[in-house]
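subagent[fold] <- orchestrator: predict structure for attached chain, return tokens only, no commentary.
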Amino acid sequence: MLKPQKLNKGDTVTSISLSWGGAGLLPGRYNKAKSQFEKIFDCKVIESPNSLAPSDFLYNNPKARADDLMWAFKNPDVKAIISNIGGDDSIRILPYIDFDVIRSNPKIFMGYSDTTITNFICYRAGLKSFYGPAFLSQFAEVGGIMPYVKSSVEKTLFNNEPIGIIPENRDGFTYEFIDWFTPESLTTVRKIRPTDGWHWIQGSGTVNGKLIGGCMEVIEMLKGTTLWNPEDFNNSILFLEISEENPTPSQVLFWLRNYGACGILKKVNAILFGRPQNENSKEYEKSILKVLAEYGRTDMPVITNMDFGHTDPIMVLPIGINAEIDCDNKTFTITESAVL
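subagent[fold] -> orchestrator:
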């Protein structure tokens, strides 16, 4: 698989709307994200042709969204593509994707949530991509881009040396909801809560594998499509998280049973689970352990309550890149560079 070139100061990054058209609806928030990103990372941010298009237009024109992605990959001035925000229907861009364009123009692509679809599009094209911050969420954070986010972006996208040990976020976290359509949303700093760290709930020793995964609800949409191949999970470290819709622990259990029925749980070397936006971490952990026991994987390392997905701050997880989990020393290490 192809690695993209690293970002450098002065490079051009494009924003893109592959699902919900929130950037056009929220110009104040988008502009805050753009200015903060440019200031912190010393890059120029431009918009893909429909990045700020009306939400109704984007919903009714999935081909226009796909065309933006093709434009961004073909544009020689663009060094990285970052999603504005997620949504719930980027699966509709799939018929309009030219995988050869992506394969022939490898560059950084990053997003999370519904952007899981495009992460898997990149994977099918043979390009390693990034499950990480988006413009309207992490890069528009009131009070500035959080240090944990900034550090992870710099280590992962701007550095072509092995990334190394990923530290736990000990500065606290938030998933406080503030309505982005109110004036207060541009001035209100969200409340930070203390964290008890990552939960090492199963496993011993050391395992290695390539990182692959995304948002569980979105993965359910891509199953059975050309993006879905259980063989992609061979010798992998599977990372999973759930959205602010908060699917129940029972739903997570049912989805994981499907992974078992597909043979994926036999192929996976470890599971990482992101911090959920509710107080049910222990219940989700019970679901995970129950399914793994059903499929004979009581040996599999599992870490939950991790800092990725629909929580803040978050790390960047490079898809297709090798990582190591040391259960005895409780370390999670990305053992190679994610960029050239």
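orchestrator: received. Logging for downstream: Residues 12-162 form a domain with the Rossmann fold fold (CATH 3.40.50.10740). The chain has two domains: 12-162, 183-334.
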